[in-house]
Fe2OG dioxygenase domain-containing protein
Amino acid sequence: MIEFFKQPLEAKKTYSMVPGNLQGYGQLFVVSEDQKLDWADMLSLVLRPSDSRDMRFWPNTPASFRDSIDRYSSEAAKVVSCLLRFLAMDMGVQPELLLEIFRGQPQNLRMTYYPPCRQADKVVGLSPHTDGTGLTLLLQVNDVQGLQIRKDGKWIAVNALDGAFIVNCGDILEILSNGKYRSIEHRAVVHPTRERMSAAVFHHPRHDATVGPLSELVRDGRSRYSSMAFMDFRKRFRRVVGHPHAQRLAFEYVLERLWLNAHVHGQEPQQTRYRLCCLRRVTI
Ligand SMILES: O=C(O)CCC(=O)C(=O)O
Ligand SMILES: [Fe+2]
């Protein structure tokens, strides 16, 4: 990955994103010429299922690149299977139930390169967002800190442990767990003199899954979210881009719809009110 980003721009542009496809080398969510871009370049690839790989975007320099990514993908999938088992046990649900939702372990990879910026406080490396995933395995590739999470309205730096993954709970896990695990809002800042690199592997439910709180967790009828097809969730999630907090807000917007539906079915009025407050911040 380090070798890939070191190459001249022209070489990297061989793998440029094309309209209508989120894979390849470029920038995330570019929707307008006037948009202020994040201070980062990235290479995004679909890794699993393996027949969805689009090899046009897979660099073959350095020569070991494709092979390394392939192995990384299998190992990440194994780690995530283990984590899903532990999470199921922690929630008191059958591990097989959770694993079935992630069957085949659809996975994509985003490698991000943040160049240094002398006026680092005037730019943002990666805008605030939540991951629209089940779980994300995030690796800070070099020893430059940059990840922050928003807690109680404040941004808090997360220090990566050497050689360890940072595991993010994504939006889907928040819904499946009926809110037990919160999908955390995060962003990346840049360093004034040093470049930074990270690699995130996003794990999604299988494409024909329905996402909603696991039935074992709503036995008492307290479902915080109603269910929807994962592909519908994804479509709505991607519709709102280019806003400073686009992804978090998009997620809240989708949740809002889910919670309103739940409310219509006579559940959780208090939670619905909370989400209505969030909705006021969103212009859609
Ligand atoms: O670079 C980082 O530390 C964060 C990356 C991230 O949040 C993402 O790729 O979704
Ligand atoms: Fe993220």
About this structure: The helical segments are 2-6, 9-13, 65-91, 95-101, 171-176, 230-239, 246-264, 269-280.
